[in-house]
TrEMBL record:
<dbReference type="InterPro" id="IPR003409">
    <property type="entry name" value="MORN"/>
</dbReference>
<keyword id="KW-0677">Repeat</keyword>
<keyword id="KW-0547">Nucleotide-binding</keyword>
<keyword id="KW-0418">Kinase</keyword>
<dbReference type="Pfam" id="PF01504">
    <property type="entry name" value="PIP5K"/>
</dbReference>
<dbReference type="InterPro" id="IPR027484">
    <property type="entry name" value="PInositol-4-P-5-kinase_N"/>
</dbReference>
<dbReference type="Pfam" id="PF02493">
    <property type="entry name" value="MORN"/>
</dbReference>
<dbReference type="InterPro" id="IPR002498">
    <property type="entry name" value="PInositol-4-P-4/5-kinase_core"/>
</dbReference>
<dbReference type="InterPro" id="IPR023610">
    <property type="entry name" value="PInositol-4/5-P-5/4-kinase"/>
</dbReference>
<dbReference type="InterPro" id="IPR027483">
    <property type="entry name" value="PInositol-4-P-4/5-kinase_C_sf"/>
</dbReference>
<protein>
    <recommendedName>
        <fullName>Phosphatidylinositol 4-phosphate 5-kinase</fullName>
        <ecNumber>2.7.1.68</ecNumber>
    </recommendedName>
</protein>
<dbReference type="InterPro" id="IPR017163">
    <property type="entry name" value="PIno-4-P-5_kinase_pln"/>
</dbReference>
<keyword id="KW-0808">Transferase</keyword>
<keyword id="KW-0067">ATP-binding</keyword>
<feature type="domain" description="PIPK">
    <location>
        <begin position="382"/>
        <end position="775"/>
    </location>
</feature>
Length: 779
């Protein structure tokens, strides 16, 4: 039986007209055929009940009707039904007491609706793909309410939160936390209006007490810090620099006229503010997107495990009645005469009509199902005693422990220009017997150099790196791991055992570039918290003493792929085509393999708020790199697929288990519950940021066979739910004379626009054009 004939029989409702002579043969072909199930009181029609003049096979596909279902596990649904899914308006009641009333689309809550929890909590508003998304009102079981904007179950945008204790917050939210600008009023009438960061008062703002006193100035972690003014209701005021540390506190008191309180202590403000706490609100125990629909089975048909179609989608009820038919005979062609030429023409005409009316797509070849890539081993070789770089690792750990341990905490992030001077470095000698400042060790004598120590100490504070954790990761009992081979630049890479930090050996030219651009880099990452540019934590040098006098320079960076999610696919994207494919055969590609531009077979679709922020940040980052004359950087992308079958096949987001079909409960699979659990825990929301643990949809693409260097393939409409991690790396290559010569040489042989070595301005424009084709808004 040909593929085309099989698709015709299994996909469409047709009316087969036969002669009396053909009907006898049809009895042996059709056997028993199920009439389209619409209720639990399904009936079965045999060929004996079929009219002599025709055989009619009916399916519920394409019909929208009202249904009432009591599902096998006790769940209840009543409302509109389409193609084995709730579709339209309906009510679903789970056995645990949760209930949803509202709009559905292909089995997902989509549109306006109301979700209720057994605790009494409720959400009424807009839904999208099962998530609370849009504008809605949430009422908690203890009386908390939030009315405002939502994105994927999180408060995101403007909203008003009324707490059960009487406090009210009216302002901006990001990823479920107060952010940007807002007003918080306590139940006694005192209020703060100003800037917020991660649910904490941070930035510039004003606190006004009910007695008329007020503080105007800067805040950090919920307390005054920086320049500020405290005013009394009588007109007296205090101006100065505020800090919770008495040694940093200084200012001047100005009484109103002859009256005032010269004995007043600024610490009274801090003591008073300790009584004003920011409520954290209630945690939603179960999110609407975590609620699964039960499986419905007809009482009149045999249950069997669902099967997958050739493109990975789950077969739905439409083809059940046809599965045992063999109207066209065997592969050898026997039995083909059982259907006459008139019937063939009727089938072909019916298929063409449905295709022309948009009910089906043409029977073009479909891509093979995608599978999870083979899991790679843990990256790197542990550097143990006897390894060629064992002493270098010991020297590095000794130097880091000494440099970080002796440094005083950063007082202010405002640095003097002299701190960025390339000559600002500290040499320390480490003899084996130790000194007054260095411990004894078993390695050979070496010298240690810290470049711009104050700047990198401030960067670690800016990136919220705890000094103790930093030292423990790099200098703890666990050894570093060396990656199996150096990169294209000839540098070696080392990973800490907890995967949080990556150490890269540096060429002298790269060190000079980093020191030259360090001030601009510092100002950029300070101005843009969500920058995608790689994070640098330290720049050091080890100089071995003795006859070799070898210098090893290295930079410590954040490991982009340090995540609680396993990374299934990795891409290094530049926007150029020459040489931008992996050189590994398919059999050697695993989850650790870094693929390139021409290997990419996805378009990534981000939620509107994330996409707009992504565009803004990529533009800002590229402008910064262009100004510093940097080129040859790339966007490193990691993908975690959220749903896969037990056999390892990726499950498209449209291939849900249909209600009305049997699901093999013995075959566990990954689901989006892991992301939902992350979203349901406010303490973990901070781990979701631009470029970090971002939920998205990946649409599969296919390149045309007649276009060898097509950078972005054609969309197939096949979507996968993913979690994404990405950032801009390799930002230390400037457009020096070697790159200019490379550009001139390769331009003679290849298309100048296809090569990587181009002017920074052209590189930035080409990079952005490509990235904005690969990342789009999810409509």
């Amino acid at each position: 039986m040909s593929k085309e004939q099989s698709c015709v029989l299994k996909a469409w409702e047709v009316t087969v007209r036969k002669t009396q002579q053909a009907k006898k043969r049809a009895n042996s072909i059709f056997g028993t055929v199920s009439v389209a199930p619409q209720t639990d009181d399904d009936t079965t029609t045999t060929t004996d009940d079929i009219d002599d003049d025709s055989i009619t096979i009916r399916s519920s596909i394409g019909e929208l009707y009202h249904a009432e279902r009591v599902l096998p596990n006790g769940d209840y649904y009543t409302g509109q039904w389409y193609d084995s899914f709730p579709h339209g308006h309906g009510k679903y009641l789970w056995t645990d007491g949760c209930m949803y009333i509202g709009d559905w689309y292909n089995g997902k809550t989509m549109g306006r609706g109301k979700f209720g929890w057994p605790s009494g909590a409720s959400y009424e508003g807009e839904f999208k793909s099962g998530y609370m998304d849009g504008v809605g009102l949430y009422t908690g079981p203890s009386g908390d309410t939030y009315k405002g904007q939502w994105v994927m179950n999180l408060k995101h945008g403007h909203g008003i939160k009324r707490f059960a204790n009487g406090d009210v917050y009216d302002g901006e939210w990001r990823r479920g936390l107060q952010e940007s600008h807002g007003k918080y009023q306590w139940r006694d009438g005192s209020y703060y209006i100003g800037e917020w960061k991660n649910a904490m008062i941070c930035g510039k703002g004003t606190f006004i007490w009910t007695d008329g006193n007020r503080y105007d100035g800067f805040w950090d972690d919920g307390l005054p810090r920086g320049n500020g003014t405290f005013k009394w209701a009588d007109g007296s005021f205090y101006v100065g620099h505020w800090s919770n540390d008495p040694e940093e506190m200084n200012g001047t008191y100005y009484p109103s006229g002859d009256e005032g309180n010269p004995e007043w202590d600024p610490k009274d403000v801090f003591n008073n503010l300790s009584e004003y706490k920011i409520c954290s609100g209630e945690r939603v125990p179960v999110l609407p997107s975590q609620k699964k629909l039960s499986v419905w089975n007809s009482s009149k048909r045999v249950e069997k495990p669902r099967r997958m179609s050739v493109d990975g989608r789950v077969s739905v009820g439409v083809d059940r009645a046809f599965e045992k038919m063999n109207m066209w005979g065997t592969e050898s062609g026997e039995g083909a005469a059982d259907i006459d030429s008139t019937t063939r023409r009727d089938l072909d005409a019916e298929m063409m009509r449905l295709e022309a009316e948009g009910f089906i797509q043409s029977l073009r070849p479909t891509p093979a199902p995608m599978r999870l890539p083979r899991a790679g081993r843990k990256q790197g070789e542990t550097i143990s005693k006897g390894h060629r770089n064992y002493e270098l690792m010991l020297n590095l750990q000794l130097g880091i422990r000494h440099a970080v341990g002796k440094q005083a905490p950063v007082v202010s992030l405002d640095l003097k220009h002299s701190a960025f001077d390339p000559k600002e470095k500290v040499w320390t000698r480490f003899p084996p017997e130790g000194t007054k400042y260095t411990p004894p060790h078993q390695s050979s004598e070496f010298k240690w150099k810290d470049y711009c120590p104050l700047v990198f100490r401030s960067l670690r504070k800016l990136f919220k790196v705890d000094p103790a954790d930093y030292m423990l990761s790099i200098c703890g009992n666990d050894a570093l791991r060396e990656l199996s081979s150096p990169g294209k630049s000839g540098s070696f890479f080392y990973l800490t055992n907890d995967d949080r930090y990556m150490i890269k050996t540096m060429k002298k030219s790269e060190t000079k570039v980093l020191l030259r651009m360090l001030a601009a880099y510092y100002n950029h990452v300070r101005a843009f918290e969500n920058t995608l540019v790689i994070r640098f934590y330290g720049l050091h040098c080890v100089k071995l003493t003795g006859p070799i006098q070898k210098k090893v320079r290295f930079v410590i960076m954040g490991n982009l792929f340090c995540s609680e999610y396993s990374i299934h696919r990795r891409f290094d994207l530049k926007g150029s085509s020459l040489g931008r494919t992996t050189d590994k055969p398919e059999s050697e590609i695993n989850s650790n393999t870094i693929l390139k531009d021409l290997d990419l077979n996805f378009i990534f679709r981000l939620q509107k708020a994330w996409f707009q922020e992504f565009i803004r940040q990529v533009d800002k980052d590229c402008e910064f790199l262009e100004q510093e004359r940097i080129m040859d950087y790339s966007l490193l992308v990691g993908i975690h697929f959220r749903e896969a079958s037990v056999a390892g096949e990726l499950i498209p987001s449209g291939a849900r288990t249909p209600i009305g079909e049997f699901e093999d409960e013995t075959a566990p699979r990954l689901s989006r519950a892991d992301v939902d659990q992350l979203l349901s825990d406010p303490t973990r929301w901070a781990s979701i940021r631009l470029g970090g643990n971002m939920p998205a949809r990946a649409e599969r693409t296919m390149r045309r066979s007649d276009c060898e260097f097509q950078l972005v393939g054609e969309p197939t409409g096949e979507y996968y739910e993913v979690v994404m991690i990405f950032g801009i790396i390799d930002i230390l290559q400037d457009y020096d004379i070697s790159k200019k010569l490379e550009h001139a040489y390769k331009s003679i042989q290849y298309d100048p626009t296809s090569i990587s070595a181009v002017d920074p301005r052209l590189y930035s424009r080409r990079f952005r054009d490509f990235i904005f084709k690969v990342f789009t808004e999810d409509n």
